[in-house]
Amino acid sequence: MSVPYIPVLDTEYMQQTIVLPLNEYEKRHDAASLDEIKDAIKIALMMVSGFRDILDDLNFNEEKLRALQFALDDNYDVVEKIFEKTSDESTRVMIDSLLTEMAKLDMEIGDLILEHRHAS
């Protein structure tokens, strides 16, 4: 199956719904906002995992894949800093899973680029 374009991994979504709200939660420890943050983490995890599932089916476009890698790297660093500051244990577990999936996607993109370079 071939997809005509590379879908956008919405790294801005992660920034707006996870990173910034977690910073605010850590300042105020508001349980209601923590539930919203956990929902946002679940959605981000679903996006990253889903992207990993379809990566091999995408038409190869190195420029777009590199752009995605850079966005992932930027977001990984920010989410990792939040992970280090987060005090809620269940949130830490969820963020750790998200970071793992982000790292796996980053590596898989790199492998795919290398594969295509050596194939040509």
Describe the secondary structure blueprint for this structure.
Blueprint: H1 11-28, H2 31-54, H3 62-85, H4 89-119
Helix pairs in contact: 1-2, 1-3, 2-4, 3-4
What can you tell me about this protein's structure?
By secondary structure, the protein is mainly α. The protein has four helices and no strands. The longest helix is centred in the last third of the chain and has 31 residues, at 89-119. The chain starts with 10 loop residues before the first helix and ends with a helix.
Mean pLDDT: 78
Order of helices and strands: HHHH
Biggest sheet architecture: none
Into which percentage range does the β-strand content fall? Answer: under 5%
Computed over alpha carbons, the radius of gyration is 16 Å
Give the class from helix and strand content and strand pairing: mainly alpha
- Overall, the morphology is elongated
First-to-last CA distance: 21 Å
Please give the count of helices. Answer: 4
Total strands: the figure is 0
The helicity comes to over 70%
Catalogue the unreliable spans: 1-7
List the main descriptive attributes of the protein structure presented here.
about 80% helix, elongated, about 120 residues, mainly alpha
What's this entry about, in short?
This protein is mainly α. The chain has helices at 11-28, 31-54, 62-85, 89-119.
